Amino acid sequence: MRKSLTTRQIVAEWIIENLIRLCGISAILFVFGIFFFVFREGAPLLFGEGGFDLIKFLTSPEWYPSSNSNPRYGILALILGTASVSCLAVLISVPFGLGAAIFISEFCGPKLKEGLKIVIELLAAIPSVVWGFIGLTLMKGIIESVFGVPFGLTVLNGAIILALMCLPIIVSISEDALRAVPDSYREAAQGLGATRWQLIYRVLLPAAKNGLLAAVLLGVGRAVGETMAVLMATGHAVNIPIDGTPPYFHALDSVRTLTATIAAELGETAQGSPHYRVLFLIGIFLFCITFTINLVADLVVRGIRKE
Amino acid sequence: MKNQKSIISNLFTLGIVTSAIFLSSGCGGGGSNAGGDGKILIQNAGSDTMVNLAQAWSEKYATIEPTVSVEVAGGGSGTGVAALINGTTDIANCSRSMKESEVEKAKTNGGKDPKEYIMGFDALAVYVHKDNPMESITIQQLAAIYGEKGEVTKWSQLGIEAPGGKDEIIRLSRQSNSGTYAYFREAILGKDGDFKLGSRDLHGSKDVVETVASTESAIGYSGMGYATDHVKMLKVAKKEGADAYAPSVENTLSKAYPIARPLFMYTLGEPEGAVKAYMDWCLGPDGQKIVEESGYVANPTD
């Protein structure tokens, strides 16, 4: 019954095969294309255009991009803004995320499990601008009345919003990692008379540690790259939230992040101006941070597969 | 019979699709192009301060001249000028005058000089919370609060007991592509002055007023058209000991109020056709009445 392929079929086969190949490669092309574009716009500064000083760029807290007399481009305050909001967000979301993942994978029944997973995925579907609204209106009032501060758009506000946004990533990847631990481990531990807590603490968490670390790192990557919600919730003030007086870190100060600065200022700048190039340089800087985080997370996940 | 019906419905769909394509292609051409249904589209973008005013003009004009539709967008004066230079808007709203570098760019890009129109005046009001006991402020005090070298960070330094016992002054400012930001900086700190870092930079004229209304120890600046019952506008004096004036129509026209500015519209070259008719109408008595209704000061020379 089987006939040999007609010419038409061979041609169609060839076209479809190459089309699919193109789709596969296109992702790589896009990533490199974006990197090339961002680098091209920002790079002239790195090669000394306009007497640009990279050390000063990274270590000066003075951000005066539109000054008439003396424009200064120092992003230290912005770096610390991003770092403080992201770190606090991770500190909040990791205990909740891990706890939720352990509960979903080890404790709850199948019906509750399905329900919880759907709701957590729903959390990921909320647009970031809506999170920003919650920060701007609801959280602002709560923080003002709970902590008695005059202005509620703060590091803490942004961090809580970001923590909620990172939570779905942390929960679902951690849960995958816990589920990947073979049941024989659980059975062996229980056979030796381990309690549930001992099982989780001594067996499951060590066995799944690479996956859990990857979950946290991807959460950090999300936190660093998020723009709209932090733009709205952190108060957008060029300010270093760390100083020499106790408690050294002021979670109730307003800050501004790297991403929010690009979003707020890029629309105005003339193409090719120093301000424009500096914003692209910030973009390169962000790209490097998230690239490193994702790479490390990827290597960690690869580590699990080998075991 | 059934077959016939489906042919008719197919034809009907086809008709809708073709007319939709025709319509959309006709409208894309900018101010001087007539569309398939004879409707002319004028693009108008820029200053956030002027966006309510521009919207009011556009809505009223639609009832007078139904064949013309004016599409208004905000985004900031800098955004509007950039759109004019790039040719994506017919009219740019601007709450500051165009910089020389921008005029040069417009000339090289579009081959024409931008033409400036004064559409009205805006007094830039200094807002505080309605429970704040302060009534007036001097330019020097504003410079001490907002300026890079200013020392004032607490209400008590101004001799004011802030409402709610919160002494720290929450400075509200605007994002740096705002014409209001540029004008306020120049009016308070001079041409070469810079703001003190650490101000909360908000993204719209209305945001500033709303944030002042909800924050007891805040101070902010915004167009006087955005005033509400929940905030207080301070009287402003040129210097210590001089009379302080409220931001009002009379004080703006007499130039007694120190931080008032003209509101501009720019076109690339001499406007023609529908754009010219629209500009003439905005500058005429009907348009200027809307300026007053929007809370600004009409241009008395027209």
How many helical stretches of chain B?
Answer: 10
Number of helices of chain A: 12
Any idea how many domains of chain B? 2
Task: Write down how many β-strands of chain B occur, each being a DSSP E stretch of 2 or more residues.
Answer: 13
Shape of chain A: globular
How large is the radius of gyration of chain B?
23 Å
| Residues in β-strands, percent of chain B | 15-25%
Structural class from helices and strands of chain A?
Answer: mainly alpha
Main β sheet profile of chain B: 10 strands, mixed
Tally the structural domains of chain A: 2
Q: Main beta sheet of chain A, described? A: 2 strands, antiparallel
Low-confidence blocks of residues of chain B: 1-36
Order of helices and strands of chain B: HEHEHEHEEHEHEHEEEEHEHHE
Give the helix proportion of chain A (percent range): over 70%
Termini of chain B, distance in Å?
68 Å
Summarize the structure.
Chain A contains twelve helices and two strands. Chain A has 307 residues and is mainly α.
What does this structure look like?
The complex is a heterodimer of chains A (307) and B (302). Chain A is an all-alpha fold. Chain A has 2 domains: 7-52; 82-260 and 291-306, MetI-like fold. Chain A is built from 12 helices and 2 strands. Chain A has helices at residues 7-46, 54-59, 76-107, 110-124, 128-147, 155-179, 183-191, 196-207, 209-225, 228-233, 258-265, 274-306, and strands at residues 63-64, 72-73. Chain A has a two-stranded antiparallel ribbon with strand order 1-2. In chain A, strand 1 (63-64) and strand 2 (72-73) form a beta hairpin. Chain A starts with 6 loop residues before the first helix and ends with a helix. Chain B folds into 2 domains: 2-121 and 262-298, Periplasmic binding protein-like II (D-Maltodextrin-Binding Protein, domain 2); 122-260, Periplasmic binding protein-like II (D-Maltodextrin-Binding Protein, domain 2, 3-Layer(aba) Sandwich), CATH 3.40.190. Chain B is α/β, with parallel strands linked by helices. The longest helix of chain B is centred in the first third of the chain and has 26 residues, at 2-27. Residues 1-36 of chain B have low confidence and may be disordered. In chain B, helix 3 (77-86) packs parallel to helix 4 (100-110). Chain B is built from 10 helices and 13 strands. In chain B, strands 1, 2, 3, 4, 6, 7, 8, 9, 12 and 13 form a 10-stranded mixed beta sheet that branches. Chain B has a 3-stranded mixed beta sheet with strand order 5-10-11. Chain B has helices at 2-27, 51-64, 77-86, 100-110, 139-146, 179-189, 205-214, 249-253, 273-283, 285-293, and strands at 40-46, 68-75, 91-94, 114-129, 136-138, 170-174, 200-202, 218-223, 231-233, 235-237, 244-245, 260-268, 297-298. In chain B, helix 6 links the parallel strand 6 (170-174) and strand 7. The A-B interface holds A 61-70, 77, 140-141, 150-151, 153, 235-239, 254, 256, 264-265, 267-270 and B 75-76, 78-79, 82, 101, 105, 164, 166, 168, 170, 175-177, 182, 191-194, 197-203, 214-218.
